[in-house]
Amino acid sequence: RAKETGKARCVVYSPRHNSPTEHDISLEAAMFQAVREGEFVLYYQPIVDAKTREIEGFETLMRWKHPTLGMVSPARFIPIAETNGLINLLGAWALKAACVQLKQFEEAARRPLYISVNISPRQFRNDKFLEVLDDAIAFSGISGAQLVLEITEGTLMIDPAHAETILAKMAERHARIAIDDFGTGYSSLAYLKRFPISVLKIDRAFIRDLPGSQKDGAICNAVLDLARHLSLSVVAEGVETEEQFAYMSERGCQYVQGYLTGKPMAANVAITALTERHYADLMPADAAPHPAL
Ligand code: C2E
Ligand code: MG
Ligand code: MG
Ligand code: MG
Questions:
Q1: Which residues form a coiled coil (predicted)?
Q2: Who has the most CB within 10 Å: 142, 198, 271, 288?
Q3: Atom of ligand 1 nearest to the CA of 42
Q4: Mutate to test the pocket of ligand 1, among 31, 61, 93 (most ligand atoms within 8 A of CB)
Q5: In angstroms, what is the span from residue 209 Cα to ligand 1's centroid?
Q6: What predicted TM-score, i.e. pTM, was given to this entire model?
Q7: Crossing angle, helix 86-109 and helix 74-84, to 10 degrees?
């Protein structure tokens, strides 16, 4: 079976390899084909209010529906796209498509929502990035304030002076900046002072062992404290259990994103989620990303 072959081959792949494996190269060739064939799609994961569980926004997560491999995870293809520059094309498409989708989500929900989009380091540093951003906002007709751009600590630290310029331009457009995977990168806390950041997304690694782990609890509490004093919002990523949800919401975390409150889902499923109260029960089994890839 094609899917199983895909799985088996993926086990050999190591993302830490410095030189591309044979498999990377064939995957890379397939990616260019995939762009032409329209095999890339966007999924949307709810970000919910930790008090009401209402959907406040969605994170856009890219998926590659390969005809024989099945769903290929972005954790596999984004690094390749980052290396060969295809990320600029894919990222521009994702940003624009996500903004257009947000309009449709709002029409279905009949209330304001926001959209959070991942921006890779190379995309952030691309000369055309601000043009791409302006085009997405203008074409979709959303306001910049409805857009959250997720970047990692690493993206800021590659060239802090350049990052400062770009972030100032984003702020002019009222787009908000979220630090993704907060606490896992190589950076100093000084950047929280230097850059106009609005949101911290606590990485799943610090949520996974809650509420049992004292160390993770200490880290989450410290981040929530820090965010409070700096007037930043916090999103807890990867919340899978009611216990994790309760732990974070009781400690003042405003937003939660995780399998408990909604897996990444196709746009039409997201619309159902927005219009049905108990959307978690409505999710089809295939809303989850393919586990092995
Ligand atoms: P990320 O931005 O940190 O996205 C969160 C990841 O955690 C997603 O993985 C999501 O499916 C997963 N997740 C969410 N809730 C849970 C949970 O409760 N449990 C578990 N186990 N996982 C959860 P995904 O979709 O595989 O994406 C992986 C990474 O690929 C993303 O991490 C992001 O860095 C990158 N990525 C995805 N889409 C894009 C894109 O459009 N552009 C760029 N540049 N990067 C993207
Ligand atoms: Mg993200
Ligand atoms: Mg993250
Ligand atoms: Mg992550």
A1: none
A2: 142
A3: 41
A4: 61
A5: 19
A6: 0.89
A7: 130
